[in-house]
Amino acid sequence: MSARERVAANVANYVDERTGAASWMKKNLQKVFPDHWSFMLGEIALYSFLILLLSGTFLTFWFDPSMRHVVYEGSYQPLKEVEMSAAYASTLHISFDVRGGLLMRQIHHWAALIFMAAIVVHLLRVFFTGAFRKPREFNWILGIALLTLGIVEGFLGYSLPDDLLSGTGIRIAHAIIQSIPVVGTYLSFFAFGGAFPGEVFIPRIYIVHVLLLPGIFLALITVHLMLVWYQKHTQYPGPGRTEKNVVGYPLMPVYMAKAGGFFFIVFGITAFLGAVASINPIWLYGPYTPGQISAGSQPDWYMGWLDGLVRMAPPIETYLFGYTVSWNILIPGLIIPGIIFTGMALYPFIESWITGDKKEHHLLDRPRNVPNRTALGAMSLTFMLVALINGGNDIIATHFDLTINQIMWFSRIGIIVLPPLAFVITKRICLSLQRADRELVLHGKETGRLVMLPHGEFIEVHEELSAAKKYTLTQHQQPAAIALVKEDARGVLNPKGIRAKLQARFSAANAENIAKPTPDELKQLEGGHH
Amino acid sequence: MKFISKYRKHKFAAPLLLLFALTGLGLTFSVASATEAPKAVDAAARSTLIEEGQQIFLKGCSSCHGLNGEGAAIAPSLIGVGAASVDFQVATGRMPMQDMSQQAMRKAPVYNEEEVAALAAYVASLAPGPRAYTNEEIEWERDGNTAEGGELFRNNCAMCHNFAGQGGALTQGKYAPSVMGVEPRHIYEAMITGPQAMPVFSDKIITPEEKLSIIKWIKAAETEPNLGGAALGRVGPVTEGLLIWTLGLGLLIGIAVWLTAKAR
Amino acid sequence: MSNELEPLADPGLPEHIHRKADTDPIAAKRAERQVAVLFSLSAVGTLLFIFSYFFVDQDQFIFIPVMGSTNAHQLGIGIGMAMSLLFIGFGAVHWAKTLMPDQEVIAYRHEMRSEDSDREDFVKAAKAGAETAGLGRRPLIKRALAAAAGLAGLPAILLLRDLGPLPGNALNETSWKSGTRLVTDPGDRPIKASDLEVGGVAQVMPELPVGQKRTLENIAKDAVLLIRLRPTEFQLDAERLSWTHEGIIAFSKICSHMGCAVALYEQTTKHLLCPCHQSTFDVTRAAKVIFGPAARPLPQLAITVDSEGYLIAKQPFTEAVGPSFWERKS
């Protein structure tokens, strides 16, 4: 044994004698991970989270989460002797008087934007490929929780510097809290320690932002990853891949190198963005005061859809027995987001109710093979996009020579009309793609080569697909719709009532698919068809 | 010809052709839409500045503003708007208006400095109004206070012109333009005349010294380098989010595709 | 039940295609060199960071196309840090792709469900435990425990009581009283009617007693916008008209929707626009909402002039300013 090997052996022995690590490490070092780029989206989010922890800790060494009034004496001249909160002044200090401070602030904020974007694309991948089905429903719910908490954490984070833009955002949040019926004014006075803006809000959200939420994130992310580890990652269908295996690369060394390398890459790209692109230039916004506002005030993108919904809300308030209910705030600010996120969280159960599917699934769906789900996803995305666009309607208006009034009306009507349209179009596209797949399997790929037959007919030569490709295109299952039990064994009509009727309807719509080629059809073709 | 047929099916043929077509189209458009250079007026034929101004007015402004500046359905009266308004509107190129849309846009001026002065003198002669200023007499560098100007700007201007003076949307297609790259005298005149949708900021409400501070802050913001990197338009989170979804995620997903691709 | 015909048998994992570096030692050496170069570039990045951190002046600016004039120190340490991280990643990934084994490995899944025997054992153990605890046979303990546990949560909630004061009447009150002078913000100068021209606006605050400092909480309720129109341009009833003075009208600047400052005044249309959610208010009709999500007009402040000609408030606001709340009387 070389000297190096002896040292390694001693260390391993030391650890193993105290923890018994060898027994669980022996198989986990060889754990297999499927390799596809779409499986790395969650990793982008995970690494962004680590970057946020590291860069955020750096910032806490200088940030002063206090709203006490100070007069600015730092190096940024256009704010000389301006009155501001200590939080704002300390952020200016970090930006201009701490070397690397502005870089770290920017890395932190870009990492937050990437974190949320990665969660969203990861969610979309999991949704469209059906990775949330049994046994992964709980992991999906954890993911929705992470998404929701991420939005809150980001909002609190960019509100800490107490600048004009983020202070306006807090004003809006305050108005939402205050508008809650019965308890709104009490909640807002408790949250803000009195009237708005008060002196305690920033220190309070600071603790939520640096301690409570990161702690909850760490716990949720750990469970989220442990579940993936234990349940093993899903994989795309293909030759050699079944519901009972995982095909990929072992943790050591390939996956460690690739995943570890990817962490450095994500960090590097974030650092690159922090170096070359300015984000949240608080010195230009100025300190927050409730009497000021900037044209074109928006929250960060992951809250833009909320802002868009609030903007397009009809101006409805009702007054009952001397009390005011602000539907124009409650509906877009609390009720609709509540419905959306609850619906998202419950979706695995809704889908399994519709399909009646109680089996475990480890092979992913190709989105075209589940047209209803894919169309539903497209519909939800369209809804969010219209809301998001409306959130930026003033910036869009000035840059594209439109009016805010036009964009507002487009959004008000579009948000109702466009999603169902997106559903129909997407479903039809999925069915067409299924038809194309069927053609490919039965007739092969078009080669573009024309051949003239002896009797004068021109045909295009089709190249038969490889067995592997044919297998991939036909591996999916096409379950039949759930039949409605009209009468049970004892002669009771509609025994399960309206729920069963709904289930049968949805299930029938869900089962609309182009039939896969059957073995007989293929055999027919094998005899001399081009 | 042989060259063309030889490279017809080259993989760069299509993109190059597209680039060529787009460049050609763009150049043609910019040449065709270039405005004419300002014409010098034959000074010898005119006697006083006001008469000069009247001649220019009759030729270029009266069709909308009336033969005596009294206004019409499509254009407001100019009686009492003062030389300041004329200097602002004409020297920034807003007037004559190119199309009768919601708002006069800043563009290349049609009249040169002498002609503007003449027009201003004529309109000032219609009725008393605020006088025009020269850049030299606006001592913003000497008398203005940048930090105070910033406070004043955020209090009185940012709600329309945005925190960095980049401009913002108003209703029905109107907009508050960017205040960057505007001469100090025009900023001053805009505040005192309240052009189009902009309100008037009287000297008792924002004192002349405060106006100088505002100008000083605007100039500081204009010349301030981008402290954190590319400024992305200084319009806030919208462009930041756009960058993430295009460059940020684009790079990262592209790298993920490379990472999982099989090596040769 | 379902159409699960698989027309084709699983052809199995495709043939492994060897990479150049697997078979050709020169290619392997080249790959190794490439990885080494990538890692070295990371070191270069670190050096750039260190150099920029210590030797580039924080006030130095450099012009980069597309980016404009940007801070050289920030750019140096940023690009340095980015390089030092990125190239470790690129190097590791390139190493894995070209030199580490790329044979696909198959592992097998077990059904998530436990063995039936395990399940039975679990149920037995759980039941035995529950029986010995005796909750089933001892309802008194069960109820007492439930009561205790339920109550034990209350102190945690009660401890939060001092997070803030009760709202009381605070939301209905502002600093504006009968006779309060309107002063410019900033500047705190009292205003005469003649100071404001037709088409002009002024940001105003209530004059505070000498020695008292204006707080942000004051601003959040007291901010007022003064606008001057021609008296003929108003379309107000007699009472609201009496709250104006020679064409000057005053509104609360705090948006009745969600509290942003509404100060975007369009002189031509006489409209006020709130930039947060685009609520539009018509000044000639007492800030009536004509577009957008705001449901109520901006509260109007009745103004007049005092004996010296300065603008003063005639009376406090007749309704609560700012966003709506449950107890708000309308």
TrEMBL record, chain C:
Coiled coil: none annotated. Pfam families: QcrA_N (PF19297), Rieske (PF00355). The chain crosses the membrane at residues 35-55, 75-96. The keyword Amino-acid biosynthesis does not apply. Residues 221-312 form the Rieske domain. It is a multi-pass membrane protein. GO terms for cellular component: plasma membrane. Signal peptide: none annotated. Its main location: membrane. It is found in: Cell membrane. One of its GO terms (molecular function) is 2 iron, 2 sulfur cluster binding. Keywords: 2Fe-2S, Cell membrane, Disulfide bond, Electron transport, Iron, Iron-sulfur, Membrane, Metal-binding, Oxidoreductase, Respiratory chain, Transmembrane, Transmembrane helix, Transport. Its cofactor is [2Fe-2S] cluster. This is Rieske iron-sulfur protein. It comes from freshwater metagenome.
